Amino acid sequence: MQVLSSPTEVAALSLNMRRLGKRVAFVPTMGALHAGHLALIEAAKRHGDWVVVSIFVNPTQFGPAEDFGRYPRPLEADRQTCEAGGVDLLFTPSREDVYAPDHSVYVVEGNLTRGLCGPHRPGHFRGVLTVVAILLNIALPDVAIFGQKDAQQARLIQRMVRDLRMATRILIAPTVREQDGLALSSRNQYLTEEERCRACVLSEALRLAESCYAAGDRDAVQVCARMRARCEAVVPASAVEYIEAVDFEGLAPVTTLADGTLLALCVRVGKTRLIDNVILGRPHMAAAYGLLA
Ligand code: AMP
């Protein structure tokens, strides 16, 4: 496995691979790699011949009160994980490698950011889209893999790639979970043992919603209310940041549940902000949205 921090070297290698007829598959991450990231790497190996992983804790996507400073950065462990995972190139740029000192151009999306995390994390998706655009321009991949765990992010990136006519195909891999349902996240390590127990409530609320849908319940308001009640049994009402039912295409609120409805929630457990989601009728939506099995 090669490890590089120079964008020009990465771009040159990637172009060369493509000239040789190899499909370049890219997995951008912020490190602190876990089995969720590894599943993206496995998907990248299936969809590409040469796999690039980036590790970059992107300062522009953190709010001033967020955890940029204390975000975990176990670089040597991550390097070993990538090597064992069969990654071909690990790209570990510095802030200066990614952003010019007088960087002044940002990617702003004006529609899919209106709900879910958008209003709660001002500037977050501007930072995400900007860094992903930069990283795609460096890695020049045929395909890039993102996790459904961050469903709004993945849809935004698909929209950016469509609207800006970028040449990368964006695939979305399913969320990897702990045995008890908790979605893996680098931020789970902030949880105390007691919080870790309560954190299960996100996936429990989503499973409850899925069983309502399977039983024929189509009333989004009612189902979201049931999810909320489930959450409020273990966290204060004020800790439930949002519970929303939106259509996966445009992330606009829906009143009637249907295949392709994204049910998403954000709950603060202690000081840790956790998100999770499901897509109703996911298998039917797979082809249209590059959702991997
Ligand atoms: P992060 O390092 O948190 O920025 O995440 C990098 C990529 O891994 C993003 O595309 C995430 O959506 C994805 N990811 C994070 N957690 C999971 C998970 N539990 N299952 C699948 N993908 C995940």
DSSP summary: helix tally: 10
User: CATH topology of the largest domain, which one?
Assistant: Rossmann fold
Helix/strand order: EHEHEHEHHEHEHHHEEEH
CATH class division of the largest domain: Alpha Beta
- Mean pLDDT comes to 98
Structural class by sheet pairing and helices: alpha/beta
In short:
The protein is an alpha/beta fold and 293 residues long. The protein folds into two domains: 2-173, HUPs (Rossmann fold, 3-Layer(aba) Sandwich); 186-281, Pantoate--beta-alanine Ligase, Chain: A,domain 2, CATH 3.30.1300.
Brief descriptors of the model:
293 residues, alpha/beta, Rossmann fold, Pantoate--beta-alanine Ligase, Chain: A,domain 2, 2 domains, six-stranded parallel sheet, three-stranded antiparallel sheet, 10 helices, 38% helix, globular, binds adenosine monophosphate
Structural overview:
By secondary structure, the chain is α/β, with parallel strands linked by helices. The protein folds into 2 domains: 2-173, Rossmann fold (3-Layer(aba) Sandwich), CATH 3.40.50.620; 186-281, Pantoate--beta-alanine Ligase, Chain: A,domain 2 (2-Layer Sandwich). The chain is 38% helix and 18% strand. It has a 6-stranded parallel β-sheet with strand order 1-4-3-2-5-6, with helices on both faces. The protein has a 3-stranded antiparallel β-sheet with strand order 7-8-9. The chain starts with a strand and ends with a helix. The mean pLDDT is 98. Adenosine monophosphate is lined by residues 29-30, 36-37, 39-40, 146-147, 149-150, 173, 175-176, 183-186.
